[in-house]
Amino acid sequence: MQIVTLSGFKGGTGKTTLAGLIAVAGLMDGRRTAVLDLDRQTRNLTHFVTLRRTAGFPAPDLIQLIDTGDTTRGFLRGKERDRLTPLIDMAEADGYELLVIDTSCASRQDFFDAHKLADVLITPLNDSPADVHSLFAPLYSPQAPEDNYYRFIQDVRWARRRTGRGGQDWHICFDRAAPRPTRIGRQIEEKVAALKEKAGFDETFRVCERVVHRAMCLDGSTVFDPKSGGLTLSELAARSEIRRVLGCIPHAAPIALAA
Known about the structure:
Layout: E1 2-6, H1 15-28, E2 33-37, H2 44-55, E3 61-63, H3 84-93, E4 98-102, H4 108-116, E5 120-125, H5 129-136, H6 149-162, E6 169-175, H7 183-199, E7 204-207, H8 216-219, H9 233-246
Parallel strand pairs: 1-4, 1-5, 2-3, 2-4, 5-6, 6-7
């Protein structure tokens, strides 16, 4: 089973939307797919799956995590109880091939574990200096976060190696990117490219056609669902972009259950 975690330190970058789109794309690709919604406040990914089921669209399965209260300690030490590993082990034993995790507003320990257990990390990034700053700002620089995201990923990978897990891919996705190059967009992409080796991420993607995904909030439909009159060129382009992101997630055969 491939575990994909959508995350970052900054809100409003499109993590939940991309999580839903990747899950639907994986389902349409023939993978048995489930999602895990760690957003403790809005549960938007859960709402999206419910909308799809109500509308009769194919929907990924929803794995529920019983919420027993906030975990406020052990953010980088792993001293709190690991709630995700048993859940993920059960999902894999049940034959799922793809699990997509949305981490927005997760508890600290769940947030850390969702990164440590992921085979693929995808971090959406807007064409905004603030987004780049939250990911890569040098520690103790003016207005830097308490810890920057790429150093957090280094801690995650150290913890992952200690548990004997394999390698982990990390991709940056420029979300809501302008279809035509802009000056600020070029500057942001050049800055991120210059940080690639230092930060340790792999491929970058661009998702330009975000506007066509607004129906997700209304009825759960996506560019992967049939539409009366066919898809527009913009919708076809949006579908192609999400499929390219899905292409970075290897196929994983489900575990064969004992007879």
